[in-house]
């Protein structure tokens, strides 16, 4: 009996020691995380940024929560950038932030995060852009569109993985409402899908109205070279102005579609 009591006492002592070290480790980890969250927000910026690829202005706050008045990456520029750390994502092994920013005054929201030894990822990103009110975005679109575009564009990115200066995968969709091309108005809604094939970003789209028929495909490679291919023709409800506009595009194919091709390289 005495030996059993001694064995039980030893087990209890070992359990208490293990519990003590477990609590102490948790306390140290929590305190270290607390100190980490108090680091200035500048620790989130690249260590050796170059002005031609990345710049940030008026960065305030901490790693936990902060903001920057303006962040520029290559030809993209965002203002009123805000981030808030999501501690519950740590249970999924992800260091993650909820972000809010404005692109030419239009709101963009979503989540950005990173797993250990993994790629950066974005998910549940939503951007609602009024093209006619956004000079910066309109100028950017003009670099790969043969037409002047106006309308209300909604982009939703379900999941984006980014590593080694380029995309690993992307999945999303877009909807362009009340499209206007050049001087033509009331061209209805257009819908598209965003995906990736063979390391290339693919955007497929088509009109969802009866004024225009056809489809399009825009392909962007890792070297930022792009190629646009469209096949369009007047729909059943096309008016004379639209038919005349199509006739300026050249000669249609055997099915009545006007082929449009253009290529270039993003800045």
Please describe what this structure looks like:
The chain is of the alpha+beta class. The chain has 2 domains: 1-37; 48-265, no CATH class. Helix content is 19%, strand content 49%. The chain is built from 3 helices and 13 strands. It has a 13-stranded antiparallel β-sheet with strand order 1-2-3-4-5-6-7-8-9-10-11-12-13. The longest helix is centred in the N-terminal third of the chain and has 36 residues, at 2-37. The radius of gyration is 27 Å and the shape is elongated. The N and C termini lie far apart (83 Å). The mean pLDDT is 81.
Strand order of the largest sheet: 1-2-3-4-5-6-7-8-9-10-11-12-13
Structural class: alpha+beta
Q: How many structurally independent domains?
A: 2
The biggest sheet, with number of strands, parallel, antiparallel or mixed sense and barrel status, is: 13 strands, antiparallel
Order of helices and strands: HEEEEEEHEEEEEEHE
Rg, please? Answer: 27 Å
Count all strands and give the number: 13
């Amino acid at each position: 009996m005495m030996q059993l009591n001694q064995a039980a006492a030893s087990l209890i002592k070992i359990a208490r020691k293990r519990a003590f070290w477990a609590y102490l480790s948790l306390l140290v980890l929590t305190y270290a995380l607390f100190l980490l969250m108090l680091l200035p927000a500048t620790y989130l910026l690249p260590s050796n940024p170059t002005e031609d690829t990345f710049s940030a202005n008026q960065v305030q706050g901490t790693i936990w929560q902060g903001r920057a008045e303006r962040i520029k990456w290559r030809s993209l520029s965002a203002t009123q950038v805000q981030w808030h750390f999501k501690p519950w994502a740590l249970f999924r092994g992800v260091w993650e932030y909820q972000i809010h920013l404005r692109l030419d005054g239009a709101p963009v929201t979503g989540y950005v995060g990173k797993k250990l030894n993994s790629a950066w990822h974005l998910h549940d990103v939503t951007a609602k852009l009024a093209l006619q009110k956004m000079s910066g975005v309109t100028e950017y679109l003009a670099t790969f569109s043969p037409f002047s575009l106006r309308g209300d564009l909604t982009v939703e990115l379900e999941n984006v993985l980014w590593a080694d200066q380029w995309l690993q995968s992307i999945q999303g969709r877009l909807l362009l409402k009340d499209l206007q091309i050049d001087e033509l108005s009331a061209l209805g809604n257009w819908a598209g899908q965003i995906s990736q094939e063979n390391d290339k970003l693919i955007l497929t789209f088509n009109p969802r109205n009866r004024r225009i028929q056809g489809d399009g495909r825009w392909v962007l490679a890792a070297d930022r070279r792009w190629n646009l291919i469209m096949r369009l023709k007047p729909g059943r409800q096309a008016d004379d102005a639209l038919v005349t506009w199509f006739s300026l595009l050249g000669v249609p194919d055997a099915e009545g579609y006007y082929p449009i091709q253009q290529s270039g390289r993003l800045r």
